[in-house]
């Protein structure tokens, strides 16, 4: 199969060389904006130890609001404030970064009846001039989160909220997490989060930083036909830049019937392209006459293996080309002479999103903004001036 040419077991730079350097306790490589927080304010969120600052330096529009007090209980502090955008069709954050860097970008929304209207809005999000996702909230007391892994095409990142005529857009927080460029590579496009699971976890809670150096959010995944094995010892990430978190790697799922396989389907949108990352590490110290060796099949065809996971070493298995089609069926099954069943500790699934619309040159944008400032023009010029066509800057043609 052609796909076998694109498979590899990851082996990257050491944990110490990147993760500890970039994601030490000072959270360098992190940008955490509490949207609507008063200017020059900051705090450390008690449940995650993430340091948040006000979004004021990165946005020129919008109104700071607070959610209703009755909706605060049990919510993280970054949900208490939000920035609302009652004016303008498109309002954009402008964050100066470094072209070519790769970030996990996360946007968070919690309505909390901040406007006392009990009326949930629906609006679009853009990265630069490109559509990212429609924000659809289903309950005034439910939150919503979206994240994408994105390589910066320029030194400026524009995150935009677009009013589509279905209520006033708002946002609660924006979080950026610098990633090694050696991780989450695609042949083309960015990676939109679809699922991220801690398999057979100790608890039913989600978790993130400071248990994950990249601050990915992990959800529990349990099944009645899978059971848990675990260790209290530290799992070594070796040279794996994906840095799967200890909490996920110390537990693993195995089939209840030791002779069975670990089977699962990925119900991705029709005709989508996906990338799958399986994080696997042996949690049991096997005897000399024992073995755990398995293969992985995809839609009935051999995909990877045979693989014998090393004891207490976290590795990540993935394909360097996307998986396409309408069916995504995986089976992790033991080889004939293996004494132990297959295992899976954690898994990530992403959809490919092609942000193909090019941005205007920053020097051209700066020149236009200088003209605006020089002549005192009152224009709601936000984001990219030239794209998409529906949101061209008003009066731009007269200035060209």
Low-confidence stretches: 1-24
Roughly how many Å apart are the termini? 54 Å
Number of β-strand runs? 25
User: Average pLDDT value?
Assistant: 89
SS content category: mainly beta
Helix content: under 10%
List the helices and strands and how they pair.
Layout: E1 7-9, H1 15-22, E2 30-34, E3 42-44, E4 51-54, E5 63-66, E6 81-84, E7 90-96, E8 102-110, E9 122-127, E10 130-136, E11 143-151, E12 156-166, E13 170-171, E14 173-179, E15 190-199, E16 219-221, E17 226-230, H2 246-249, E18 251-255, E19 262-265, E20 274-280, E21 294-298, E22 301-307, E23 315-319, E24 329-334, E25 346-353, H3 362-375, H4 396-399
Parallel strand pairs: 2-4, 15-16
Antiparallel strand pairs: 1-23, 2-14, 3-4, 5-6, 6-13, 7-12, 8-11, 8-14, 9-10, 9-12, 11-15, 15-25, 17-18, 19-24, 20-23, 20-25, 21-22, 21-24
Describe the structure concisely for a colleague.
The chain is mainly β and 400 residues long.
Explain this structure.
The chain is mainly beta and 400 residues long. It is 8% helix and 36% strand. It is built from 4 helices and 25 strands. The strands form 5 sheets. Strands 1, 2, 3, 4, 8, 11, 14, 15, 16, 20, 23 and 25 form a 12-stranded mixed β-sheet that branches.
Quickly list its features.
8% helix, disordered N terminus, 4 helices, mainly beta, elongated, single chain, twelve-stranded mixed β-sheet, 400 residues, four-stranded antiparallel β-sheet
